[in-house]
Write a structure and sequence with these properties.
It is built from 15 helices and no strands. With 336 residues, it is an all-alpha fold.
């Protein structure tokens, strides 16, 4: 497909080398099962030997750092599926134990939650930088977005201006569009560190994580419930910040219309916009704009879907359609 894509000026330069070392999904699943079968009994024996108290405090921190160092070394050098799975398990166990030791007694503190989410995001980026396996980089991208989404949930309790952006998701979608815009130049000149293929895998997986976070986080909690929740100390916040309702609805509508206009303009420049497709796209954009006034997060999904359609991320585009349909279906339960 590379010559056809280059003829349409979607890519530049020669085709990238095939990644022949990526194992199949079934091979990864079987290797992970083998790693768990080996490590779970070993971990149980170690826990019985050193005791639960050794997992906390100074010894717990030392153990977590040791696990992460061992996992990082394996991530850096391993190519075999079984070793990669073992490295991933060690890295995750070490990271989880580190986060538990840092914040187990202060989960009610917003500052501590913010620090834990930020640290978890940094650990996922370091893991993605260490490994050369694409499937591990994808897992790191998903986990990174989950940590960032949690960080934004905590931030919104301080920063009211994040509420109209629905936890910053719209900003992340716009950043992804900018990332895709420079993809052809990065493919032509893969020199800088951010142009390496691992970060393309990481970023795409992060966007999938954003879609999953939207789908599984209550489908965009209504602002009335959000403002009257325990995050807010003032019970009158709903009355004083009612303008956020209108601003949020307006931003969603603008995002849908902007995504539609972007598709129309780029497809017209590429010569791929037929009159029938243009009418269908305009009708779909108008209907989604009306729906976005009532269902939150449709604007974010429209921006991600536009980027996926323009950059040939067909599976991400299909996922956008499924999440959008679930949001539209969930609207029935928000009528009260």
């Amino acid at each position: 497909w590379w010559p056809a894509a280059r003829q349409q000026q979607l890519v530049q330069g020669d085709a990238p080398e095939l990644d022949a070392h990526e194992p199949a999904v079934l091979v990864i699943a079987m290797a992970m099962l083998g790693v768990l079968v080996c490590m779970v009994p070993l971990g149980a024996f170690v826990l019985l030997g050193i005791g639960e108290h050794a997992l906390m405090g100074v010894t717990g921190m030392a153990l977590s750092l040791s696990l992460m160092v061992a996992g990082g070394v394996l991530l850096r050098k391993a190519e075999h599926a079984f070793i990669c799975c073992a490295a991933l398990v060690l890295w995750v166990l070490g990271g989880v134990l580190l986060l538990i030791n840092l914040g187990v007694d202060h989960l009610e503190s917003r500052q501590n939650l913010l620090m834990l989410c930020a640290l978890a995001a940094v650990l996922q980026m370091v893991g993605a930088w260490l490994t050369g396996a694409r499937w591990i980089q994808a897992i790191m991208g998903l986990s990174w977005m989950a940590a960032v989404y949690g960080l934004l949930v905590v931030l919104q309790s301080w920063m009211v201006w994040l509420l109209p952006l629905w936890l910053g998701a719209m900003g992340i979608a716009l950043l992804w569009l900018l990332w895709l815009r420079g993809e052809s130049s990065r493919l032509a000149q893969p020199g800088p560190w951010w142009a390496q293929p691992r970060w393309a895998v990481f970023v795409d997986a992060a966007i999938v994580g954003l879609l999953c976070s939207i789908a599984f986080s209550g489908y965009g909690v209504p602002l009335s419930e959000l403002l009257s929740s325990s995050l807010w100390r003032d019970g009158d916040a709903v009355d004083r910040l009612r303008w956020l309702f209108w601003l949020t609805r307006g931003l969603d509508v603008v995002a849908v219309l902007g995504a539609t206009a972007l598709l129309l303009r780029v497809w017209a420049q590429r010569g791929a916009l037929t009159p029938a497709l243009q009418r269908m796209l305009m009708l779909a954009g108008a209907l989604l704009a009306v729906c976005a006034w009532f269902s939150p997060n449709l604007g974010v999904i429209a921006l991600i879907a536009a980027g996926a359609l323009l950059a040939a991320r067909w599976r991400i585009a299909i996922l956008c359609a499924l999440v959008a349909l679930s949001l539209l279906g969930y609207f029935y339960y928000l009528l009260h």
